[in-house]
Amino acid sequence: MLTIHKLTKTLGGRTLLREAEMTINWGERVALVGPNGAGKSTLFRMILDEDQPDEGTIERDEYAITGYLPQEAGEPTDETILEIAIGITPELIGYLRTIREAEKSGDLSSPEFAHAQDQFTALNGYQLEPKAKKILSGLGFKQEDFAKPAREYSGGWVMRAHLAKLLVMEPDLLMLDEPTNHLDLLSLLWLQRYLLNYSGAILMISHDRDFMDSIIETVIEIDPDAAALLSYTGNYTSYLDQREKRYEQQVQAYRNQNKEIEGHQEFIDRFRQVGSKAAQVQSRIKFLEKLDRIEKPRTPRKPFKFAFPQPPRSNQKVMELTKMGQSYGEKRIYK
Fold first, then answer.
1. pTM of the model
2. Which of 110, 142, 192, 277 allows an S-S link to 271, with CB 3.0 to 4.6 Å?
3. Which helix (H) or strand (E) holds 259?
């Protein structure tokens, strides 16, 4: 479905990727990991044709549909939550609003209503709507939220509507950038179950280890030191174990080669002036000159951990709020 071949990308004078390789198959679930600034978002943009590599190719199946959920949505418009989730064209939105207005007024005999209903049916609108409502409910929306404008909701709730739009769309390659950022626990667990049964391929960036562990089957790491894409089979916990073992193997190989080099160099230094050993000395000198030296492995980056000790309770009043209230449109958050 997606093949990256010999991709090189330099940004701000720093080489993020050098002749990198990556393949995602149909139905595969992949997590893209790496430290902040390693180039995860840049790679996403290149896959989406929003940025271009310096060298190399990115090939997508010509029949595959790609859907992308960014970390943040743009400014909300007058579209309703349901209209966003259905992901329909402005033309289809117009037909849907004509139908809703006619149903609200009770006038179902007008030519406008009949035309709108015929067109909405022809464009498969009646099949999209129940699917969108089911997904919106799973993501925490209530029935009364569906017809309200998105501008009445916070950015997190608007992102949920856009996530629902992608799930209704069912793209062949679903690209998710921190999909759990705006979800509460119940919505997160619902999305987790939904993606387990998702038939398309998934490529995600996430810092939620438990979420990745339950879904993914392949981890692709951007190694900033090697400027390469390293592939590991298994979930995130398995990736951490494999990475540690890989590092240990690299350290052992580095030590073994150094020991071998020291042995050859010792022989050369010892018998350099001995005529009977001249041929052997020259052979070992040529061997060392041609030897492909193993670089000293870098210790795998580990997440920085810190903890805040429980402070003693203060006997002073830290903050006092009086008659506070907050609303998004008609939706009262607290009062």
1. 0.74
2. 277
3. helix 236-271
Neighbours of 302 (CB within 10 A): 8
Picking from 112-126, 165-179, 272-286, which range would have the lowest pLDDT averaged per residue?
112-126
The domain spanning residue 36 has which CATH number? 3.40.50.300
Q: What is the pLDDT of residue 89?
A: 63
pLDDT tens-place string over residues 304-316: 677 888 888 777 8
Show the beta-strand stretches assigned E in 192-239.
201-205, 218-223, 228-233
**24, 32 in Cβ contact below 8 A?**
no
Torsion of CA 141, 142, 147, 152, to 10 degrees: -60
Do residues 258 and 209 share a domain? Answer: no
Total domain count, the chain: 2
Does the pLDDT of residue 251 top 70, yes or no? yes
Residue 155 CA to residue 152 CA, distance in Å, equals 10
pLDDT at 303: 62
Pairing of strands 55-60, 2-11: antiparallel
Quote the tokens at residue 246. Answer: 């890989």
Q: What is the pLDDT of residues 152-188, one digit of tens each?
A: 888 889 999 999 999 988 889 999 999 998 899 999 9
Is residue 97 assigned to a domain? no
Cα(133)–Cα(152) distance, integer angstroms: 18
CB 5 within 8 Å of CB 56: yes
* Domain membership of residue 285 as a residue range: 250-290
User: Is residue 221 domain-shared with residue 177, that is, in the same domain?
Assistant: yes
Does 229 share its domain with 255?
no
- Six-digit token pair at 232? 């590991």
